[in-house]
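Quick one: M18 family aminopeptidase from Marinobacter halophilus, structure tokens please.
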Amino acid sequence: MEHTEFNNDLIQFLNASPTPWHAVKTMKARLDADGFQPLDEREDWVLEPGKGYYAIRNGSSIVAFRTGTKDVVTSGIRMVGAHTDSPCLKVKPNPELRRKGFFQLGVEVYGGVLQNPWFDRDLSLAGRVTVLDDAGKVQDTLINFRKPVAIIPSLAIHLDREANSNRTVNAQTDLPPVVMQVPETDTTAFSDLLREQIASECGLKIRKVLGYELSFYDAQGASFVGLREDFLASARLDNLLSCFIGLQSLLQTSGDEAALLVCNDHEEVGSMSAEGAQGPFLATVLERWCGAGKGRAIAHSMMISADNAHGVHPNFMDKHDENHGPILNQGPVIKVNHNQRYATNSRSAALYRHISDELGLPHQTFVVRSDMGCGSTIGPLTAGNLGVTTLDIGVPQFAMHSIRELVGAADGFTLYQVLKEFMQRAEVF
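--- reply ---
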């Protein structure tokens, strides 16, 4: 796979994945096409050497792995982790708001959303809906309106003269998107709109909408940016970019070594869920794969937690440590925090540097300023739960947690090349 092919495929993946459920569905289709076999957690598993498998939990988290041709207990597993969720605006259970003939939907802020960029964007809506179908069966279906269906208009500067110097956003009152205009006598329920969309998109006749998890998203698709197309802009680069890189790495490995990709939901809200990194999903898969030898297998293994890093912004260079300001398009970033906000240690960092140097590829290091707080990833959670040596790494980006983020066009492909080599490396430690 070449650089241009990689990025064009990435753009398709991003556009097809407006929610964690859609991202997992997209990954599942690619795994199926490559011969990976689905595993049902409710059933017995019979795993064969040299095969590919995957398990899905809640439709929004996935663990995919190759069993390899060697004894997993003594050879270990080369693991890569990422997360499927991104900060966004989620529709509330009783969302209908009617004001002066405008039909709006109440929203709840999910994760650490950078709120101001959500104004004046063309918004669409997607997610999972649980319904009672015509046969009386409860089932889930995914929907994606695809076209712009809503907008959050800014208040004109004439009505807010302090907007450019002192504007704050009230998530309760300022963020409900405008969906349409309706007569004063209108009694349309949001569930009615969902029934129409389900019938149109899925051809499914239903008796009742029983529940949903729906998110607004930027209807503008991913694209290259810059006079020389140096950058790639999209929603959800944090962290679907890492999911894509990890998936492509797993698909392109030789299959001789045991290799695994885990993409968890709910990282942006702390990872404490049945399918989050603080939950038992990955550990359960490993127990069923490795059996009583799980502890020995983990001692031979390593995890690379891939989650984007803060690139040094040319307008805000003082926000970085002067010796640790990653530059876009100059390589993936090894993330270091001695207070264990990142799980990197000298050993795991050394292995990444060694592989990267062998391939002649660039790498950088990030340490947060000593007078600023540090974010975190699934890396420390997975390391703590499993006891596995872990590295935190990521592609440098701008505008993290904005509705539209930016990365260098070269860095994703660089990380892919290193992770692919890592996943098929005969010896980790």
